[in-house]
Specification:
The chain is of the alpha+beta class and 213 residues long. The protein is 19% helix and 37% strand. The protein contains five helices and 14 strands. The strands form three sheets. A seven-stranded mixed β-sheet has the order 1-5-6-7-3-4-2. A four-stranded mixed β-sheet has the order 11-8-10-13, with no helix packed on it. A hairpin with a 2-residue loop joins strand 3 and strand 4. It is elongated and about 60 Å long.
């Protein structure tokens, strides 16, 4: 997979005061850590993070670039993003450094493609999961996984074990959970189909009319 380059700088001042100062400068406080790395406080341009990282779905490898000692060739994943509960402004970002030679577990979005046969009969496509956990090498992380629903009839279901995954990618699960199903038409739709057209007497009224002749 392609990596995203993101400029960073060493954060000299930590704590709430330093974080507020960074945000006034349109920068976001961040931290980089990993199994073989001591935590490194960083600052990243808010605009860059919003346009390059926050706007895309799924897990993506990020190359951190900047004049920070020990950061050469550092590749990381976004581990956590904290946002303000009211304004949704970025508050803090956690980066986790990865080893390109070691497998890891990440969340992969599901994209449901095709028109299900059951939908053509009035059924309703009902996704049950929007993403699944997969295990693979960092460079093999899928941007998304396609789930073809074309063959699904009403009441049919696709389970995680039925997915066709890219080479080198395996789904992580302990039970064969469902991903998507086709629900039958709703009660309201069924009643609407069974209701007589405007101006057409109901069966009981038709019988009564016939008896009066």
């Amino acid at each position: 997979m392609e990596t995203i380059e993101l400029s960073v700088e060493k954060r000299e001042r930590v704590g709430k005061g330093g974080a507020r100062k960074l945000r006034r400068q349109k920068k976001v406080p961040a931290i980089l850590y990993g199994r073989r790395r001591q935590p490194v406080p960083l600052a990243i341009p808010e605009k860059d993070f919003q346009s390059k990282v926050a706007a895309i779905e799924g897990a993506h490898l990020i190359r951190l670039k900047g004049e920070v000692e020990g950061l050469e060739e550092c590749v990381a994943l976004v581990k956590e993003v904290q946002v303000h509960p009211v304004t949704s402004a970025l508050l803090h970002v956690d980066f986790y450094e990865v080893d390109l030679a070691e497998k890891l577990t990440v969340a992969a979005p599901l994209h449901f493609v095709g028109k299900a046969a059951g939908v053509a009969l009035g059924g309703i496509l009902q996704p049950l999961r929007r993403e699944i956990s997969v295990r693979c090498l960092p460079m093999s992380i899928p941007e998304f996984i396609e789930v073809d629903v074309s063959a699904l009839g009403i009441h049919d279901t696709i389970h995680v074990s039925e997915l066709r995954l890219p080479e080198g990618v395996e789904a992580v699960y302990t039970e064969d959970f469902p991903l998507v199903t086709i629900l039958p038409p709703t009660v309201e739709e069924t009643r609407a189909e069974a209701a007589p057209e405007a101006g057409t007497p109901a069966p009981a009224e038709q019988a009564k009319t016939a008896g009066e002749k």
